[in-house]
Amino acid sequence: MNTDVEQAEILVQALPYIRRYYGKTIVVKYGGNAMLDEELKRIVTKDIVLMHYVGMRPVVVHGGGPEISEMMKRLGKEPSFVEGLRVTDPETMEIVEMVLTGKTNQGIVSLINSQGGRAVGLSGKDGNLLLAEKAIIKGTDLGQVGKIVEINTHIIEVLIREGYIPVVSSVATGPDGVSYNLNADIAAGELAAALGAAKLIILTDVTGVYRDFSDKSSLIPELSLSETRELVRKVDKGMIPKLEACIAAIEGGVDRAHIIDGTIPHALLVEIFTDKGIGTMIA
């Protein structure tokens, strides 16, 4: 009986947050090592379905770096990175599209649908959702790595309006028809801004942002925009695109951005529906 009462109290405590975010778009960036555990994938997708059923409008943007690297190695190619971004020659681009759009995207869609949601899988190519051009990083040509130059949100807005959960893979096309590999964090941040989202939530495999990653007591629960800009110069390279995504989102009008540990069961719900939240919030 006590357990039932406790569960009821938890639901009541969530009510202000359900009311606050009812009808609001929340972009969830899902990727990296947080996607490798099958049970965690089931939990995350169930949380996304719950968000939908309490009136939120979740949009999922995903990467799949570990899966891409694994497939590259299986095919005899060694992954290479510059500033945390994958060097993408034409052969690697084919692997990226095969894994992200053909496997990872459809896997997430199937899990959401199996738990009562109605998900639709897209790549950034569909409906010219994400248009990109070649990105040159610190004077280095990374091949078919792109930066977004235009976002056409119409297809996402139609799907949301009709009650679907869009699931977007981080692949784009250019004006010349060339495919581009996008950093999924940056894509999520820019898409959140274009959609006028209330939140951007980046699921990763660390607790949040640390002042000193070797010191686990240095977790930063909250950051201002100016503090985040300053911290980009100091953090581990893998965290740089996540912070840049949060900056793009906040600068574009998103109320709050969060970097949280997606390997914690129900981390999404803890962040959205509790006072303390989890991870690092940027606002």
Topology at a glance:
Layout: H1 2-21, E1 25-30, H2 38-53, E2 57-62, H3 65-74, E3 81-82, E4 85-86, H4 90-114, E5 119-123, E6 130-137, E7 140-151, H5 154-161, E8 165-169, E9 171-173, E10 179-181, H6 184-195, E11 199-204, E12 222-223, H7 225-231, H8 240-251, E13 256-261, H9 267-273, E14 280-282
Parallel strand pairs: 1-2, 1-11, 2-8, 5-8, 11-13, 12-14
Antiparallel strand pairs: 3-4, 6-7, 9-10, 13-14
What does this structure look like?
The protein has 283 residues and is α/β, with parallel strands linked by helices. The protein has one domain (21-282): Acetylglutamate kinase-like (Carbamate kinase, 3-Layer(aba) Sandwich), CATH 3.40.1160.10. Helix content is 41%, strand content 24%. It is built from nine helices and 14 strands. The protein has helices at residues 2-21, 38-53, 65-74, 90-114, 154-161, 184-195, 225-231, 240-251, 267-273, and strands at residues 25-30, 57-62, 81-82, 85-86, 119-123, 130-137, 140-151, 165-169, 171-173, 179-181, 199-204, 222-223, 256-261, 280-282. The strands form four sheets. It has an eight-stranded mixed sheet, sandwiched between helices. It has a two-stranded antiparallel ribbon with strand order 3-4. It has a two-stranded antiparallel ribbon with strand order 6-7. Helix 3 packs across helix 4 (90-114) and helix 7 runs antiparallel to helix 8. The longest helix has 25 residues, at 90-114. The radius of gyration is 18 Å and the shape is globular.
